[in-house]
Amino acid sequence: MTTDWLGDRAPVSTIDLFLQPGEFFVGNHEFRVRTLLGSCVSFTLWHPRLRIGAMSHCLLAEGRPGCPERDARYCNDAFALMTAGLTEQGVNVRECDAKLFGGGQMFARATGRGAAPIGISNGHYARQMLHTAGVRICAEHLFGQGRRQIVFDIRDGAVWVRHVPSMTGLDTPS
User: Fold this and answer.
1) What is the pLDDT of residue 174?
2) In this predicted structure, what is the pLDDT of residue 117?
């Protein structure tokens, strides 16, 4: 937990959380959520009036068809889980501001002939999914090389991005 000072007002305590790959979080203004991304994508949803938000860390675009349980490793399932959590808190997801991050290219070559790198596929899928759901994307930092550190402050909806390009151009698997 950290304490921030807001001018002449009393200090505000903030609970810091770290999302691992395949996790999501829904919470109120007391939380700051962090994660690290490579080819994965993260999207935040924030309701400005209620100061309630959600954040994901998705590894892949879509889960297996016919799988009865939602799995936040997949963008479509994470979005459904986040929407359910926000709805429980009285938030209409279409009133949220969305921000989208990640989708970096982490390896020198795509694994399949003619296949788009996984990060690019993840980013395009997440963007289209939010658009189809009627959620306004107000900011994004997608694609390129390297990793990103993401920090989402639910208190004010701010998201900080630290993009660290690969030192050698692209990492090559051993």
Assistant:
1) 33
2) 85
